[in-house]
């Protein structure tokens, strides 16, 4: 079994390093890069999801997907489209229906930020703005029943923008559990790596 990790916008693959290191499955784990997957492609959600799907399809064995924020959106999308391939799913700070107002405010803030602020993301400013714009219409509400694998849904206690939706997902996904990471904000993999690793390992043990 292969464990694939996908970071959020504003992070890089090494954002998962401390979490992965603390799990027993670190040797079977791989952290993917959003910017590398989009290299030389148009910065749209459709292109990013297509590239992510190709990475998942390369694996010859069952996969466990763990995604945070945008990474969670992509992993949920794949689990809907490929229920037979995904052994288990971890969704951290996930959305299943894009909050249009929040995206609009986020993009307004991106417009005001200097180009240099986007360097750490591995994206150009225009690409980030364009990518977020193409996500506005995403809505998986009518497809959530297609997810057949066990799901762990986690969210930071302080992540007010995503906590309500994360809890809602538990009602829509049949075989799911919710875990709230105390004293933690949006970037749980950076803010609480040890606690997150413990929660992940408990979940991984339950599916093996």
Automatic annotation (TrEMBL):
Its EC number is 3.4.11.5. It comes from Blautia luti. Keywords: Aminopeptidase, Hydrolase, Protease. The lineage of its organism: Bacteria, Bacillati, Bacillota, Clostridia, Lachnospirales. This is Proline iminopeptidase. It holds the Pfam family Hydrolase_4. GO terms for molecular function: aminopeptidase activity. PANTHER family: ALPHA_BETA-HYDROLASES SUPERFAMILY PROTEIN, HYDROLASE. It is an enzyme of class 3 (hydrolase). It comes from the Bacteria. The gene is pip. Residues 57-120 form the Serine aminopeptidase S33 domain.
